[in-house]
Structures are given as structure tokens and as C-alpha cells.
Design brief:
Elements (H helix, E strand, L loop, with lengths): L1 H19 L2 E11 L7 H11 L9 E6 L11 E10 L1
Parallel strand pairs: 1-2
Antiparallel strand pairs: 1-3
Length: 88
């Protein structure tokens, strides 16, 4: 259930950025998983693929990697590193 909440927040953020950029959709999403985020890149990808249909991220390429830096202040977080969009 925790992953569901994280993905909802991520999809909301992606929608917000696409709207702010006056774009049509996201084409590439890059996510960094903190060392203590408790989700693997593969598991995250499964949840992302389930959450994106019908959103501005539908069809977007996903790049996801896990950090092993335990001293990172965001080690417990899932960070939207970058978002590429298609302009209208």
C-alpha cells in the first residue's frame, strides 16, 4: 500500500510539471531510489507501469536506479531526478 501512495504522489508531480511546462506528455522519467527506500528498481518499475496508463506518463520511458549512499540526506526517499516532456 505504501508503494501505491508513493506512485500516486509521483504521478501527481509528473502531471504538475507537464502542465507547468505547457507540454503534452512526459517522454522520459528518471527516478533515484534512496539506499533506504525499501523498494528495488524492478519492483518500482512494476508499480510505475501499473500507474501510468491514462496519465501524461503513459508511454514514457522509465529510467530508475538505486543509490547505495546511506549518508545521503534523501536516503529514505524516492526522487524525481529528471523529466523530459513533449511540447504541444
Amino acid at each position: 500500500m505504501h508503494e501505491h501512495s508513493l506512485l500516486n504522489n509521483l504521478m501527481h508531480k509528473i502531471e504538475q510539471v507537464v502542465h507547468e511546462q505547457h507540454a503534452e506528455r512526459a517522454t522520459k522519467v528518471t527516478i533515484r531510489l534512496g539506499a533506504f527506500s525499501h523498494i528495488s528498481p524492478g519492483h518500482f518499475r512494476e508499480h510505475f507501469d501499473q500507474a501510468k496508463p491514462g496519465t501524461v506518463a503513459d508511454g514514457a520511458e522509465l529510467e530508475v536506479y538505486a543509490s547505495d549512499d546511506e549518508s545521503d540526506p534523501f536516503a529514505q526517499e524516492m526522487i524525481l531526478e529528471s523529466l523530459e516532456v513533449e511540447q504541444v
